[in-house]
Amino acid sequence: MRIDAAGIYYRDLNDRIHAAMGNGEREFVLENVRGQRYLGTGLGDGVKITINGVPGNDLGAFMNGAEVIVNGNGQDGVGNTMNAGRIVIRGDAGDVLGHSMRGGHIFVRGDAGYRTGIHMKEYRERFPVLVVGGTVRDYLGEYMAGGILAVLGLNSADGSPVGEFVGTGMHGGVIYIRGGVEPYQLGKEVGPDEIKDQAWQTLERILADYAARVGMPAEFRREEFIRLLPKSTRPYGKLYAY
Q1: Burial class, 6, CB count within 10 angstroms (exposed 0-12 / middle 13-18 / buried 19+)
Q2: 3-state class of 39 per DSSP?
Q3: How many Cβ atoms from other residues are within 10 Å of residue 223's Cβ?
Q4: What is the band of 242 on the pLDDT scale with cuts at 50, 70, 90?
C-alpha cells in the first residue's frame, strides 16, 4: 500500500496505517514523509514499511518484529526500547539512537548523534545489534548492559569515529570501533580486549548483513577494530550501598 504523507498530521498517518493493517495490509510505502513521529511504533512480525523522506522522533519505538527501511535520514530516538525487528536508515540518525534497545537490529549507513546505544540490554533470546557506518558523538554506549554496538567510521577521513565518554557506566555487552580511539575518550568503566576468532566471526556476519542492507561492499578486517568490554558488571555497586 502506497501512502502520500505530504501534509498529513502524524496521528492521522499512524491511524491510517493501523486501519489498513486491520484490513490485512502488511506492506507500506510512505512517500514525502517530513517529520511525522512514532512511525512503526509497536508493530510486530510480518509488517514492512519503506519510508521515502525523513521520519520524526521515535521511529520504531517499542517495535516487536516489523521491518522499517528509511531512504533518507532519521531523527532522535530511533528504535527507542525496541524489542525485535529491523530498522535500516540509509542516511544519518539523530541523538539517542537505540535508546534502551532490547532486541532486533538497527543499521545506519551514515552518522549518528549523542548517546548512541544508551542503555542497550539483552535478556535470554533477545539480543540487540546496532551498527553505525559513519561517526558518533559523545557518550556512545552509556550504561550499556548488553548486545553489540559497532561504529565503522566510513565517513571519517582521519581521527577517531567516536566522541568522548565512550562506555561510561557500561556493565554488559560489547562495543566495536573501527579506527583509532584514545584512552581519554573512554569512560573509566571500559577497557580494550582481544578480538578472538569466535567474536570476529560473529561480528563478520553482522557486518556482511549490514553491508548488504545499506548497499555497500563488505570489506572489513579484524585488525581495523578495537573491542571494548566493561571492567565490571556493577560499576556503581558501592555508590549508593556499602
Answers
A1: exposed
A2: coil
A3: 6
A4: low
Q: What is the pTM of this model?
A: 0.95
The span from the CA of 106 to the CA of 56, in Å, is 16
3-class SS string, 122-180: CECCECEEEEECCCCCCCCCCCCEEEEEEECCCCCCCCCCCCCCECCCCCEEEEEEECC
| 84 grid coordinates | 525485535
**pLDDT per residue over 103-117, tens digit each?**
999 999 999 999 999
CB within 8 A of 90, min separation 6: which ones?
69, 70, 71, 72, 109, 110, 214, 215
**Which residues sit opposite 51 in a β-bridge?**
30, 70
Q: What domains sit in the chain, N to C, each tagged with a CATH number?
A: 2-230 (2.160.20.60)
- Integer CA distances (angstroms), 107 to 2, 12, 69, in order: 24, 28, 10
Amino acid identity for residue 67 in this structure: E
Q: Within 13 Å and on the Cβ side, how many CA atoms surround 124?
A: 1
CB-based burial of residue 234 (10 Å sphere; 0-12 exposed, 13-18 middle, 19+ buried)?
Answer: exposed
Rounded-to-integer distance, Cα 43 and Cα 39, Å: 9
